[in-house]
Structures are given as C-alpha cells and as structure tokens.
Amino acid sequence: MKKSEVRRHKERSSYDLNELITFLNKSHYVTVSFEQDDTIFSIPMLHAIHEEKIYLHAAVGSRFSKSLMNCSKVTLSSTEVTGIVLSKSLFNSSMNYTSAVIFGSTKRITNEEVMNSAFENMIDRFFEGRYADAKKPTESEWKQTAVLEFTIDEFSMKKRSGPPIEAEEDVDLPIWSGVVPINSSFGKPEKDMTTSKNLDLPEYLG
Length: 206
Description:
This protein is α+β, with helices and mostly antiparallel strands. Helices cover 18% and strands 38% of the residues. The chain has helices spanning 17-26, 63-68, 112-124, 130-133, 139-143; strands spanning 13-14, 30-36, 39-45, 48-50, 53-59, 70-86, 94-109, 145-160, 178-181. Strands 1, 2, 3, 4, 5, 6, 7, 8 and 9 form a nine-stranded antiparallel β-sheet that branches. Strand 2 (30-36) and strand 3 (39-45) form a beta hairpin. The radius of gyration is 21 Å and the shape is globular.
C-alpha cells in the first residue's frame, strides 16, 4: 500500500494528476512539511506550477531553503473548505472540502528561464497581467532568493460535497440540518496612498 493511498471513504479519493494541477493552480498556498534536527516543521508557502513541477521560494539563508536544497522527503498539503456540514447529530457533522497530500523531493534550481516561469505562474494565477506589469527581480535580488523545485513522487486527493448523511434513527429529530457554505473571494483593492495615490487601478484588478 502506498503512503498516499486513501484508506477511509475511498470513494472520495482521486489520483488524477490533471485534477491535482488544476486544484493547486486555484489554491492560495501550500503547507510544506519537512524534518530538521528531529523536529517536524510545517510552513505555509506561496507556490507555483510549471510543467507538472511545484516551485517554492525563500531567502537563501533561511532554515527553510537550507533544509530543502536537496531533500528527498518533503510533504506538501493543501485544503479548500467550501462548507460546514451540520448534521442533526454531532457525530455525523462534517465539512465539505477538497484536499491534497503530495509526497516528493526538492532541489534548488538556478535556471533563470524556469525561475522566471515559476514566478510568472505564482503571480499571474492570482492576477493575470501583474507579472508583466511589475518590476522584475534584479541580479542582486535573484542571488538572495532560493527557488526550489518539488518533484511529485505520489499523491492523493480527497473531496466531500453535499448535505449531511443522517443515521436512520436521527432522520425525524426536530433539529435543523444542512450546509453553511464558505465562499473565498478577493475583496476590493486598497490603494497604497503613500506610493500610488495618483495611479489608476490596473485593469487586471478591476
């Protein structure tokens, strides 16, 4: 049995790579877990996708980048919660979600073309056009930045949707049941009045 195999509610699982890539492109961030000095660290990070690889970045001298320069055991995870499922019973209450757990390895890359493509995806998957609009990293800034390439070894996804699943003996209880949706969306952009007071809002933020 693979470590990524879903063991409970297997009917909710998926091992489709295209579905994973689509999900990660919509995810705001991933949580990166790794071991250092007999301690497990889990750090939320912005990520990028390029040609079925996942890219992370950090300061060259940070604990994160030093640990993951060439690491064979790294786990990424991401979850989107879309609703709280209120069953008539506490035992059967749940949540609607999509989640992914990904096992793989990391290495530092220095190929500028790949690094630029990774940063473009990291920015433009939120606001398409921002990468072209913004100032690009200088040579000095690149030297201070470690870009890490994560290679997927195995993964699993799991998803729940729909109403509560009530026990037969609870169906007629006079207790409200249903789903409270959770919607994640961007709010109205807030201008930096110190540096952008006289600038119009870009079209990609409109």
